[in-house]
Write a structure and sequence with these properties.
Largest sheet of chain A: 6 strands, mixed
Order of helices and strands of chain B: EHEEEEEHEH
Number of helices of chain A: 8
Strand content of chain B: 25-35%
Strand order of the largest sheet of chain B: 1-7-6-3
Strand order of the largest sheet of chain A: 10-11-12-9-3-13
Strand content of chain A: 25-35%
Oligomer: heterodimer
Shape of chain B: globular
Distance between the termini of chain A: 27 Å
CATH superfamily of chain B: RNA polymerase II/Efflux pump adaptor protein, barrel-sandwich hybrid domain
Largest interface: A-B, 22 and 15 residues
Structural class of chain A: alpha+beta
Helix content of chain B: 10-25%
Structural class of chain B: alpha+beta
Chain lengths: 376, 107
């Protein structure tokens, strides 16, 4: 993933952005790293312990680095529907949807969540590394200024409370009802007004809470006091890989289209979004490569960038091989796992792979999604 | 310098890497060259080369790390040792830092 192992103190004079929870992180013993220009906790007590807390209990992540763009006004729905691969017009008020933003060639510019706050107010949650580009892209396509496009990154802190006990913990801190999965609503948590959303990126149930930055420490402290385990970027990465959720910059980029990334379900080409023609063509013809999960058969961990060796199809030429785009140790499965782009003809569960892990060939098997099923 | 010597990684190194989950030992008999990497340790978040502080031949590897790599985290200067090495040139040790000098280099 996109963080370096250097401690922030070693990077010298470079100025990193801090979230409103910086003091909380220091107090909780966080190791801080440079993540796309933000000084963020990679871990507190240890990735494995934080990961398992989210899988079996409840964890809390500071995701205040994520961006928010509000699109409002009469043209808001039409503008978002043109830019997002998902249907926006059919999105109910108080509902949320996962979507991609594509360029004209069907390449992925970002993956986002869109919340419909009212008939004419939509909130996009972006990846921090793409936020400025996303905002410029939305702004540039707002022909004639029919919608109001506002950068709200500085207006929100964002906390993700995730895990099987997340709802019970939050229920004890709020008087109102909590929004269901993929829904959002305003409520008060620990005395802090929040926009609560039944979303997350861990493969667990949970909620994401947006609040005013100056109230974020109060909210964080209330959640930690109630028993949520602070969890860092390291656990966020292992959790999302086990859930087979792609990470922009690793598994998604302009070089890859949504169909190849296995995200065809998030694309409604009939809306005519930017890139829809290309997405429809790839869907019709079938992608040449597909992003699939794999599990290492023995010891070792494949990492992003490791090549998957070519193989000869029956009676044919060797295919071009593939590449690992996310790889880690799975604390739940206790082995190496990851995501790789593979030639489509062998991107099916059970296929045997040879991965070149820093000069050592490691055997791996294509798995089905998710790597860690909830109902096991 | 004791000969044979025991090689491992420092407290700071294991703390920075976090939970170590795999250690692939070199073969007994492998020739190590000072300042060159001879093996790797894998933590959940990263893989890291391990560099030989001195030249020599591996005469023993810590087999217990195959099943219990977490010993490297728990006791890097004791049970978490990596290899024992018969030094080919013990005078190389004159170039090494002592513990206090090393600690002064840490952030």
């Amino acid at each position: 993933m996109g963080y370096t192992l250097r401690f922030v103190g070693e990077t010298g004079s470079q100025t990193l952005r801090r979230t409103p929870l910086y003091e909380q992180h220091l107090r909780a013993g966080a190791k801080l790293v440079d993540f796309a220009g933000w000084e963020l906790p990679v871990q507190y007590v240890g990735i494995r312990e934080e990961h398992l807390a989210v899988r079996h209990d409840v964890g809390i992540f500071d995701v205040s680095h994520m961006g928010q763009i509000e699109v409002s006004g009469d043209g808001a729905v039409a503008l978002c529907e043109r830019l997002l691969t998902a249907e926006v017009g059919s999105l109910g008020i108080g509902s949320a949807r996962y979507s991609l933003i594509c360029d004209e060639h069907g390449g992925v510019l970002d993956d986002v969540l869109i919340y419909r706050l009212s008939e004419t107010r939509l909130l996009l949650v972006t990846n921090c590394a793409n936020h400025a580009r996303d905002f410029a892209w939305v702004h540039a396509h707002n022909d004639g200024g029919v919608a109001v496009v506002s950068d709200h990154q500085d207006r929100y802190a964002m906390l993700a409370v995730q895990g099987p006990r997340a709802r019970a913990l939050l229920a004890g801190l709020t008087s109102g009802a909590l929004p269901a999965r993929m829904h959002c609503d305003r409520c008060e948590v620990g005395g802090v007004p929040v926009l609560a959303c039944g979303t997350g990126y861990t493969g667990e149930d949970g909620l994401e809470l947006l609040c005013e930055p100056q109230l974020a420490p109060k909210l964080w402290d209330a959640l930690v006091r109630a028993g949520a385990q602070p969890a860092g970027l390291g656990a966020r990465d292992t959790l999302r890989i086990e859930a087979c959720f792609p990470l922009y910059g690793n598994d998604l980029d302009e070089q890859h289209d949504p169909i190849s990334a296995g995200l065809g379900w998030a694309c409604a080409e009939r809306t005519g979004f930017i890139g829809a023609e290309r997405v429809a063509a790839v869907r019709a013809a079938g992608p040449a490569q597909l992003l699939v999960p794999f599990v290492l058969d023995g010891p070792g961990i494949a990492r992003a960038g490791n090549p998957v060796l070519p193989r000869v199809a029956e009676g044919g030429e060797p295919d071009g091989g593939g590449v690992v785009t996310s790889g880690t140790y799975s604390p739940s499965l206790e082995c190496g796992v990851g995501l790789a782009y593979l030639p489509a003809w062998r991107a099916t569960p059970g296929q045997q792979l040879q991965i070149d892990v820093r000069g050592t060939l490691r055997a791996a098997t294509v798995a089905s999604k998710p790597l860690y099923p909830k109902d096991r | 310098m004791r000969n044979p010597s025991t090689f491992g990684i420092t407290w700071y190194a294991q703390d920075t890497l976090g939970e170590i989950v795999f250690f692939t030992p070199p073969a007994v008999g492998a020739q190590l060259a000072k300042d060159e990497h001879y093996t790797e340790v894998e933590s959940v978040k990263a893989v890291s080369d391990v560099v030989a502080p001195l030249s020599g031949e591996v005469i023993e590897v810590n087999e217990s790390l195959t099943n219990e790599p977490q010993k490297i985290n728990e006791d890097p200067y004791g049970d978490g040792w990596l290899v024992r090495v018969r030094l080919t040139d013990p005078t190389e040790a004159q170039e090494l830092m002592d513990a206090a000098t090393y600690k002064a280099t840490l952030p």
